[in-house]
Design a protein that fits this description.
The protein is of the alpha+beta class. It has a domain at 13-51 and 62-77: 2-Layer Sandwich (Potassium Channel Kv1.1, Chain A), CATH 3.30.710. The chain is 51% helix and 12% strand. The strands form two sheets. A three-stranded mixed sheet has the order 4-3-5. Strand 3 (26-30) and strand 4 form a beta hairpin. Helix 3 packs across helix 4 (93-102), helix 4 runs antiparallel to helix 5 (106-119) and helix 6 (124-134) packs antiparallel against helix 7 (137-146). The longest helix is centred in the middle third of the chain and has 14 residues, at 106-119. It is elongated. 27% of the residues are buried. Residues 4-8 have low confidence and may be disordered. InterPro entries: BTB-MATH_domain_protein (IPR052664), BTB/POZ_dom (IPR000210), SKP1/BTB/POZ_sf (IPR011333).
Length: 181
């Protein structure tokens, strides 16, 4: 299936539509779009869904869960990632890491963090902000290791240090002291 995204057509990397219904035991509805998936696989990938599905265990028949707080396109990217595809790029990373964090999906978070470290195109400051927001320690360490000059320290500083991770502020102070003559 092809879906329009920002004026261009994007082919879905994996289908979760009605063609997968007979192979699934769970339907998740997002913005009136049904995603047919495996409860076992989803609960193995996400502690959020594991908890949700465990609470709803009494239900007989095929459960259907409605998610009101995300977009179907973003949920498609999230599912593609946990099912082994690579939907991460500079346009999708923010959406995917948000859902991976929200739905407590460690392998998806790890893949997002690897992308951010290796090839996201984001600035060091943006990456450090994401590292703080989503508790991405490897990303934080990678960013700090790239900072070598006073200009690079300035480039990552926020006007209000309350926005910054205290450990980053401390590391930047240490780096700045090492740069003094």
């Amino acid at each position: 299936m092809v879906r329009e995204h920002r004026g261009f057509l994007r082919k879905k990397l994996k289908n979760f539509d009605a063609t997968m219904e007979e192979f699934s035991d769970l339907a998740i509805v997002v913005e009136d779009e049904k995603f047919h998936i495996s409860k076992l696989f989803l609960s193995d990938q996400s502690t959020y869904f594991k908890s949700l599905l465990t609470r709803n265990q009494e239900e007989s028949g095929k459960p259907e869960i409605t998610l009101d707080d995300c977009k179907s396109e973003d949920f498609q990217y999230f599912l593609e990632l946990i099912y082994g595809e690579s939907p991460i790029n500079k346009e999708t990373i923010d959406k995917i890491v948000h859902l991976a964090d929200k739905y407590k999906a460690p392998s998806a978070i790890r893949k997002c963090e690897e992308f951010l470290i290796n090839n996201s195109g984001k600035t060091l400051k943006e990456k450090l902000q994401m590292a703080k927001k989503y508790k991405l320690e490897n990303l934080k360490t990678a960013c700090l290791s790239k900072i070598k000059t006073v200009e690079e320290i300035r480039s990552v500083l926020s006007y209000t240090t309350s926005e910054m991770d205290p450990s980053v502020v401390g590391a930047l102070l240490q780096k700045s002291l090492s740069l003094l003559p």
